[in-house]
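TA notes, week 10

Several of you asked for a full example with nothing omitted. So below is the full record: structure tokens for the whole chain, then the designed sequence directly under it. When grading your own attempts, check the secondary structure regions first.
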């Protein structure tokens, strides 16, 4: 989540390391709001967790089943294909 905070937090405050209450207040507010929103989504979506897990499994399973084996096969036989031309 740190990377997401750096990307989204960069728009709320300057990314300097100056110690100032004016610089860190918008960051704290944004982070607090983000945590509250994520907690609310988790609380309300707890009954639909099985659907979410199924969706993520389906989206991540397709590359594992179809794309990665084909890419590995191509990498392994690439030299043989180039020599045959």
């Amino acid at each position: 989540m740190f990377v997401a905070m750096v990307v989204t937090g960069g728009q709320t405050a300057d990314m300097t390391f100056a110690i100032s209450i004016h610089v860190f207040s918008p960051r704290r507010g944004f982070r607090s709001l983000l945590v509250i929103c994520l907690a609310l989504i988790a609380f309300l979506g707890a009954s639909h967790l099985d659907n979410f897990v199924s969706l993520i499994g389906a989206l991540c399973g397709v590359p594992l089943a179809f794309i990665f084996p084909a890419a590995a096969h191509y990498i392994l036989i690439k030299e043989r294909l180039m020599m045959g031309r």
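Residues 48-85 form one domain. Use that as a sanity check on your answer.
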